[in-house]
Each structure stands twice: as C-alpha cells, then as structure tokens.
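Bench log. Compound arrived from synthesis this morning; before running ITC I wanted a structural hypothesis for how pyridoxal-5'-phosphate sits in the protein. Inputs:
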Amino acid sequence: MQGTANSVKQARLLDESDDLSQFRSSFYIPKHQGQEVIYLCGNSLGLQPKAVASVIDEELDNWKTNGVEGHFNGVRPWMYYHKSFTSYWKDLIGAGEKEVVVMNNLTVNLHLLMLSFYRPAASRYKIIMEGHAFPSDQYAVESQVRLKGYQPDEAIIEVFPRSGEHYLRTEDIEDQIAKAGDELALVLFSGVQYYSGQFFDLPAIVDAGHQVGAYVGFDLAHAAGNVPLSLHDWGVDFATWCSYKYLNSGPGSVSGIYIHEQHATDRSFPRLAGWWGHNEQERFKMEKGFDPIPTAEGWQLSNAPVFSMAPHLASLKLFQEAGMANLRSKSLRLTSFLEEQLMGVKGYNTVFSIITPLDPKARGCQLSLLFHERGKSAFDWLSQHGVVADWREPDVIRVAPVPLYNSFEDVYRFAELLDQALSQ
Ligand SMILES: *Cc1c(COP(=O)(O)O)cnc(C)c1O
C-alpha cells in the first residue's frame, strides 16, 4: 500500500482534531482475539451504547416496584412512554412533534403506511420504486398490490441503473415518474439504497411524484441517523425506518414513522386503528367509536413495547448530544478518507471498484466495494483479522464507518488489511 507511514500518522492527527471522538467511549466495541474489532457494520446493526443497560433497568425496576401502576408511575410512565421521543426528530429527520411516533417494526409499519397511502383507484394504481429494493420492501409492495387485486408486473414500476452503471440517475427517476403520470398512485423509494449506498435526491423525487398527483413515501432504514433529512420541508408524505442500524437501538428494536402534518392531523385519513391511536383522555372508557389522536400517534395500534424503546432512548440521547450536522460533517470526512485510502490499495479498480456514488452529497457513510474476483476470500480473510464488515451476494463488501464511534484509524487499518488480504 502506498504512503502507509504517512497515512497512519494522518489518521491519528485527524482523530486528535475530531470533536466527536469522545463518543466512541459511550459504546461497547466487540473484541477479536482480545483486541477491539474494526467495526464497519453499523449499517446493519449499530453497536450497543453503554447507557442501554441502565435505561432497561429503570423499566425493570418500575415493573418490579409498581406492577400495573407502572403505566402511571415511575420515571417514564408507560402510558406516555412513546412521548419521550418527540424532542429528537427535528434534528434527526427534520420532522415536527406531530409528525413522528415510534411503534412496531419496520416492515409492519411499511404495510400500515401503505394501507393509508396506497389506495388505488380505477386508473391510478401504479407504484414506482427502485429496482433491487431491499427484499422485505419488495415483498411488502407485491403483497399490497395483490391485496388490492392487481398483478405486481402490471402495477409495479421499477427503476434500474443504466446498463454498465451501478446507481440511479435522478433524471431517470424523474422521467419514469412523469411517464407513469396519472396512473401513478405511489412513489416509494429508500432514502439511502442498502446495496449501492446511493443517497437519493429525495426533494427531487418528492417534487416529481407530487407533480403527477402521487403520494411520496420513503423507507429510511439506511438513512435515519446517517444523512441529513428535512422530511417536513421537502413535503414528504410519509416515511418509516428501523432503529437498529445507524440508530444503535438493538436487534429488532422499534421502528419510527413520519406522516406529514397535513395528513397526520386529518382525523379522517384512512388507516388501521387500535386503542393506542385513540383519544388519550377517552382511551380507558373502553367505548365504541374510534377517535384518532390528530397526530402521527393516531396510527399507533398497541401499547408501547418499553423494553425495546428504552435502548432507543439511550441511543437518541447520544445523537442529540453530538448533533446531526456535526455527525454529517465528520461522516463526510471519514468516508472521503476511506475513499482515499482505498485508492491506494493494491487492486483498486482492477480487483475491486467502488460502486457507491463518488459525489459525497449522493451517499451516506457507506461505501460498497464490488469485487471482480476474490471477493469472498478477501472478505473471509478480513473477518479472520478482526474486521467486521458485511458481505452481500454475489460480490459486494459493504463498509460503513459511522461518525459516532468509528475513528480515522479504523478506516486506515481497514484499508491496510484489505491491501494485505489482496496480496495473499
Ligand atoms: C433493514 C431493512 C429492512 C428490515 O426490515 P425489518 O422489518 O426491520 O426486519 C427493511 N427494509 C430496508 C430498506 C432495510 O434496510
């Protein structure tokens, strides 16, 4: 690898001048043969904040000492537990207090939101999405389409990269939306594409969708906590995300939904109903007649799963302390540093290439490396040498240095190890 001695020095200097470096010590870093791993898999499962155990303990304690009264007693009474999150969304995703609630899991929420926003009528029944979307999203969309009596291949339009390209051009997305015109009921894209790492031009997609009269929603699984979002200002109709990737809230932890205020406050907006979405003052009267809370909370079905929400709270506090703008600023530097280091690795652009957009505005922290040969063996070698990254069939290694706990030295060491792996 070229310029090795300089690079490690440079990495350490960058870490020393990094205002966010102290956040690493708020997380448990897994070990490999007694040494901290190079964890580049926060896009798949974020690391555990050290504060998690104590917030869960708080709820165990509330349950132990108060039993059912824990709904109204304790530090955070369970009846209102979901409200503990309202202050975080402005900075994280650009949403107002009425627009977000934390509930269920991601795919479940995708279905609930599609029941609200995918209501095909005679000539307007199509959904447009990116080709090769995350499988759960593909299954969700196909099943919704069938549920409404359509065949997936007549109702679903997929946008694919041009031949020889690896990510989408915004103009191609816009063109296909315009072409679908008034047949289009819904535009459903991811925010950051899980495979390519492309951060789509969300405001452009919203504008294109609204121009033809379609609703526009996003799956932000790889975007929330990774890239700056202004959902309300962009006019996004709805969105949902999971909390266990960049948001570090633990495996299978709760999901969030966003519904634009214009729809969230509309009590007649179609939805599936449950008692937790019902008027809070009247909830325990147990009477007939659903009276939805006039915010995103009106989409809640069940009482809050506090043991999965507690880690989420611990994690969001760290995001608030760090600030999303600061995190993005470090993230841009960290990922550019990764890109530079990869350019010095033997086999760059012959054995492997970066398929994520090189324009920093069009990506989050993840870079996806497409291997033309020896990908799996390099990946296995890296795993045996303390790198935790992610292998995606058939030939991609995804690496995601996250600004909350990864260092420039992590990035440097990863590139050095990849160089060694490819020299084997
Ligand atoms: C991670 C991810 C999922 C996972 O769905 P769950 O319901 O949380 O299991 C779905 N969609 C996308 C785009 C993802 O990245």
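What the model suggests: Residues 324-343 form the longest helix (20 residues). The longest strand covers residues 184-190.
ITC booked for Thursday regardless.
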